[in-house]
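R.M. (postdoc): so does anyone remember the format we settled on? I'll just put the structure tokens first.
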């Protein structure tokens, strides 16, 4: 696990959308769009705030690997 992910998991495994987007290198808007489409990492609604567990973020990210042309 990456050092940022390890530190997040030790402090609090649930990240806000802003923290999760930063961790993934995405904008908050893009992460929200993925959530609404059901294509992003698993998330949970805690009160009125969406939270992302670091393990779900890492799992989703690992599943995004694609082979082929990157250009």
């Amino acid at each position: 696990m990456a050092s940022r992910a390890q530190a997040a998991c030790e402090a609090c495994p649930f990240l806000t959308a802003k923290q999760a987007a930063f961790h993934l290198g995405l904008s908050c808007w893009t992460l929200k769009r993925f959530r609404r489409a059901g294509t992003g990492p698993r998330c949970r609604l805690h009160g009125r705030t969406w939270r992302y567990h670091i393990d779900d973020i890492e799992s989703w990210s690992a599943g995004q690997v694609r082979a082929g042309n990157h250009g």
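R.M.: ...and that's the designed sequence above, right after the tokens. Also worth knowing: Residues 3-61 form a domain with the Arc Repressor Mutant, subunit A fold (CATH 1.10.10). Residues 28-37 form the longest helix (10 residues).
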